[in-house]
Amino acid sequence: MKRLAAKGRGCGATSARWLLAVVLSLTAIQAHAATAGRQGEDILTIVENHRSSAVIVLAPSAGRYERQGAFDLARYIGSMSGAAIPVVETPGEIERALSGAGPLLIVGREAFEARPDLAVALAAKLKRHPYVRTDGIILQRDRNRVYLAGSNDESDYFAVAELLRAWGVRWFMPGAFGECVPAEDALRIGDLNEVYASPFEIRSFWISWVGDQSGRDDFLLRNMMTRADDLPPAGHHLGALTAGLGKSPFEIPLTDPETAEHVADSADKLFAAGKNVSVAMEDGLYSSSGEDNAGEDNAETVSPQWDKYMLRFSITDAMLTLYNRVANILHERHPDSASRLGFLIYSNMFLPPVRPTKLAPSLFGMIAPIDIDPVHAMDDARSPERREFRTIFDTWAKLTEGRLTVYDYDQSMLVWRDLPNPSIQQFRGDVRRYRDAGILGIDTESRLALATTFINLYLRGRLLWRPDEDVDALLDDFYPKFFGPAAAPMADYWGAIDSAWEASDVTEHEFYVAPVVYTAEVVARLERSLRRAEGMIDGMVATQASLTRNENLYIQRVQFVRLGFEVLRAYLDMTRAAATDADYSAAVAAGEQGLSARQQLTNRNPAFTTTKLEAGYAFWPGEVQQYRELRAYTDGDKGRLVLKLPVDWNFHRDFGKVGLQRHYYDAPVDIDYQPGRGSEYPPERRKDDPADRWEVVRTDRYVQAQGIRAADGQSALGDIWYRTDFSVTASEAAGDLHVMFPGLFNRCTLWLNGDEVGRRKYDDLWWKNDYRFEWDVALGAHVRAGANALALRCHNISHMGGMFRRAFLYQPAAASPSK
């Protein structure tokens, strides 16, 4: 029969709660029976006492995933119950099966062949005018027959996965490690009648950074997710289409009509063949050409708009002028082509256009909020950035008339350290907004790295399939199935992690947020919960030779958590030693210990981490190397430590840039008002501190992590000032004394005893700098024997401000004669 149209127009729980969940789970296991659908008097038995007379019916012309679904159904029934169920797929076998009275599981098109009304019922639930695809399923029992079908080939598999899910099978992570298959003596079906279609056409992820691909495709299918194959590509490609124009791919005359003709010529062959084409910008920052900045054409197409995220002028108006012209040229040449043009909303083409714009219908956008707070939801009052993104997103959704996909990142911490990075606290709120905006869906860049992402992708899949899914119920279901008898302490462990991120005010997305989220109190709680979990599986470990598959998996999963905890603890020990204590020997030792634990994770399963692209100071091995190099400046190799400067410094905000005029660098510090001293003052309130007084901040974490923000909660602070005093002996003052700032953001100026002694060059786009973030300043003759006053001004116009590692004074080692 003709298939239904698949293409269109183009956080922490209490232990008592988890103990109850475990008891209920174990009770269900002891019953050794699973029923799909509502239980009642009329029950269809598929398996009883490991035996079955059921048959799976599959069309001879079944599609790839329809066929995989039927055979996976037979395989999982066998894995659960030990019963062997045949799949019949020849006309004669099908006819005999349909004429019998035994239980039948009818998959895919054979279901619609037998019951055409099912297709009608399903069609009523599908998206009426999809751009790319629409996915829906129908599961219905009629006496001895169970119909499992979908709106397209993949959806046939989704229907099978839904039945297996009702019987308790789960795929929490790709591969065997994440699969949960209960052991059952009996499998039954009660009153079953489910018809459902997802509101999202795109529900996909891909694995980047050379992450492990094992099991990805099956994981997608079994969690109702799709590949993004049907989506117009939006990979960086404009440079290839503009070859020969401009000084570089980022310096082209965007609004020149000849540029549009050039791009159209480059894309013509593919467009004529009806193939989708990416016209997406390259991965970088674009400069408007002279043609875009002057003249009559510019007056019609370009309106300068400062992008505070990229610290450049937005080129959105100019780029959309180019895209519309290209689309119109290609459509005039090939009016019957169904080709779509994909473009990226990214970099300094992220902000919506200023001028009224209507997009050509062949243009499909993909918005990638790479530098927007990934921790909080769009409606979270703690995140002005995220609320700004809400407006940006809503505008693009309307402008594209729903031809929009969100390209997001999970893990959301981009340069990270294989530590847990949950995303559910952000995604569970935003997914409904995405649905209500009527966009195509989500395409996620993941590295897999399960020690980091854990069950993020599973929860995403469930919410993309059903945006109103109860996340707490999903978690209640997860822990007993995944950890067995260790469910309660593991729920407390991961619940503490979720709660730490949920409670955090950080809006940044790299490794320096780790000690802010994972406080000493959080780590202590994690260790207590982990020890309890290990105690609950100790008996299993002792008798491992006689354990079931699931029991072995419970052990492996708790061991996985243990190794992940060792990575976390070692990394935090390292950062504390370096950032707080300026003890680089201890930092290196802890870092090496953490890297060893991480390697053990990788050895167990390459999907647990992603390390293949690590090179340079940005990554964990590079951070350890940085501490080795800093150690050399303190242990006599390259230098001798003179003094560790204090952790606490006096601090002053300078929104009005009056600090120079008022001599913040050498005027007396009035520190009577000190609400920020230590960690006693709540960080969430520090943004409201008076801006005209000195206060105290720590230097082992950047100031926004301590609650220092603008009154409206924004990260950009303008000028900020640090002050401290130190004393040295006459011999030390006479030497070549340097101050090392081992972790410092922003452009800076340094004063010693009222004299300017250094200016730091720094790209205000912090990610374009050397990831050591060091500044080494020779103090020279400005040092006095006895007391000295040091003042540091940082110009913080984006994201992180100030110091995040403790500064120290050192004297370089004397150069050898050979040098």
From TrEMBL:
Keywords: Signal
Superkingdom in the source lineage: Bacteria
InterPro entries attached to this UniProt entry: DUF4838, Galactose-bd-like_sf
Keyword Signal (UniProt): yes
Pfam (any one): DUF4838
Organism in which the protein naturally occurs: Roseiarcus fermentans
PANTHER family: ALPHA GLUCURONIDASE N-TERMINAL DOMAIN-CONTAINING PROTEIN (PTHR47406:SF2), COAGULATION FACTOR 5/8 TYPE, C-TERMINAL (PTHR47406)
Gene3D superfamilies: Galactose-binding domain-like
Descriptive protein name: Uncharacterized protein DUF4838
Signal sequence residues: 1-33
